[in-house]
Amino acid sequence: MALSSSSSGKMAPIQFMACKSLASHSHRFRNFSTISSNCNASTISRTTYPMASTFRPTVVHRSISVASRSVSVASSFTWDDVLRISLPEIYQDDPSDLTGYFEKVKLCNRGSDMQSEFLPFVVDDQIVGYVHHGFAEHLKQYANVFTFSGDDSVQFRAYLTLHESLKTPEDRTQAVGDVVKCLGEEIIPGTRNELYPVTSSFGAPNFFSLERAAAPYFGIKVYGVHMNGYVEKEGKKFLWVAKRSQTKQTFPGMLDHLVAGGLPQGIPCVENLMKECEEEACIPRSLSNEAIPVGAVSYSDIKGHTYKRDVQFCYDLKLPESFIPENQDGEVEGFMLLPVTNVANVIRRTQLFKPNCSLVIIDFLFRHGYIYPESSGYLELLQSLRSGTCF
Predict the structure, then answer these.
(1) Residue 12, H or E segment
(2) What is the pLDDT of residue 64?
(3) Which is an annotated Pfam family here (predicted)?
């Protein structure tokens, strides 16, 4: 069984753990369920462990779709909720029905009918992004940074570009960064002082760098690394699942991969993955360098003035049974080890996972034989995992 560190430093045999990154706060105790490899209601046991968090989220109830029925779960759901929903016998749904997976793909690829509301963002004769007409209105006041070309009333002829005086990546980064700061949190919320490269395609020359929070407002391609950490025991596979901190700027409290993160400026994928492994799950490099690149998923999501064009590089890492993740950067509330089939149930039945994580896990299910060609829609679902432009 997996082990969890207690506040005394001793080890207790349980299947999940709370992060210890906020240990300076007062500890509180909560009861959660554990799950065994047999995975049925009779094998669930209780255990108590310290949760080093004093955050108290507002509880708002919502309805989560579960096959042909729905179940009411608080937005601040617990591991107990995850366990209950994941159990095969709880709902009489068909694991070969791919409808729940298709819904997750659709959730990441909204707004295709709104593409005509966006202007191409062109740099050095290359389209690097797309900007909504509404957001473009904010940029018009910065004529020394942005130039609008073509007839603004004829959308396919109009486009946004940078002022001709901005020649170097450094000048462009500074000028656009100043605009982002001036627009402030009211227009571009969640600034992080983290720069993403602006390119026409992955590996192409970097035209300039842009604040991460501003990326969807300029519609640039964003790349990230997502890693499924799994364990094999007694012929069965288990996935480590993380629960995001309630204080995260995006998707607080939702389920996540063991390790995931955006790809910032100037860091190769493998180096960024190993860095995230250390920060998010305390995985030493002696283990993380064994992670295997297994492809990518992509999606295009339009919502309001934002246009997310994301590509996630996928990795698998087989971990020893004895390994227990620990969060170091305060971005994870806790971890749980679940049978892959149970994780699949959560994906199919609910929206508890951060949306793009669902796509990466569905890809894992394909590659590890949990989704069969005989299932109706198999090839369509497989292709839909790369609905965005990967190159």
Answers:
(1) strand 11-13
(2) 42
(3) DUF4743
Q: What is the value of pTM for the model shown?
A: 0.80
Whole-number pLDDT of residue 76: 79
Task: Give the pLDDT score at 89.
Answer: 86
**Spacing of C-alpha 250 from chain mean position:** 9
Q: CA 313 to CA 295: how far, in whole Å?
A: 6
Measured between alpha carbons, how far is 52 from 29 in angstroms, rounded to an integer? 9
Residue 254 has pLDDT above 90, yes or no: yes
Domains of the chain from N-terminus onward: 79-112+220-385 (3.90.79.10), 114-217 (3.30.750.160)
Q: What number of CA atoms fall less than 13 Å from residue 44's CA on the CB side?
A: 14
Alpha helices in the chain (DSSP H): 79-86, 99-108, 133-139, 169-187, 215-218, 269-281, 285-288, 340-349, 355-367, 378-384
